[in-house]
Structures are given as structure tokens and as C-alpha cells.
Design a protein that fits this description.
The chain is α/β, with parallel strands linked by helices. The chain has a domain at about 20-80: Response regulator (Rossmann fold). The protein has four helices and three strands. The chain has helices spanning about 10-15, 35-45, 65-70, 85-95, and strands at about 25-30, 55, 75-80. It is globular.
Length: about 100
């Protein structure tokens, strides 16, 4: 299966797009300059945009998983991870 991808330089750039709901899924890092992945998910939910979110991190903060889950993200992938792990999460999110 092939997936179409559109990259954004930041979470702020993504939310500035007028047709955010045109996307099927968001893959974002948890920790980024500016808005974090968790803040991005919460902002989308506050705007009633229910896009599924997959978050990625290289960190092992003790409460990180609970914060990601409470934000409403579907998957948390810890770096490094294989392509098969990402594809499995995408298939679950997109119900392929």
C-alpha cells in the first residue's frame, strides 16, 4: 500500500493550513521547537478536529506515555523503530 505524505516545517505551519481536515492522519514528534506534538493534538481537539495522531519520541520521560495518551494520540512510537511498526500503527489508525 502507498501513502501520500505532506511535510510541514512545524506544528504552527500545519495549523495555519485552511484545510487541515483534508488529511487522514498526523505523524508528529512529541518534542519540537515551538508547539509540541501534545499541544498540537490538544489544539486540534479544541477546534473539534478529530484527526488521528501518531506521536514519535526519542525520550524516555517517566510520565510521557500517560501525557500522550491523555492528549488523545492513537500511537506513541519510540525511536528507533522499524518501518513495519509505523505501518502497523498507520493501518490501525486508518483501519486499512
Amino acid at each position: 500500500m502507498a501513502y501520500g505524505v505532506h511535510a510541514f516545517a512545524s506544528a504552527e505551519e500545519f495549523v495555519a493550513v485552511n484545510d487541515v481536515d483534508a488529511y487522514d492522519c498526523i505523524i508528529t514528534d512529541v518534542h519540537m521547537p515551538g508547539m509540541s506534538g501534545i499541544d498540537l493534538k490538544r489544539l486540534l481537539m479544541s477546534r473539534d478536529l478529530r484527526l488521528p495522531v501518531i506521536m514519535v519520541t526519542g525520550r524516555a520521560d517517566p510520565d510521557l506515555e500517560s501525557r500522550v495518551v491523555s492528549s488523545g494520540a492513537i500511537c506513541l512510537l519510540r525511536k528507533p523503530f522499524g518501518a513495519d511498526v509505523l505501518i502497523g500503527c498507520l493501518e490501525r489508525v486508518l483501519k486499512v
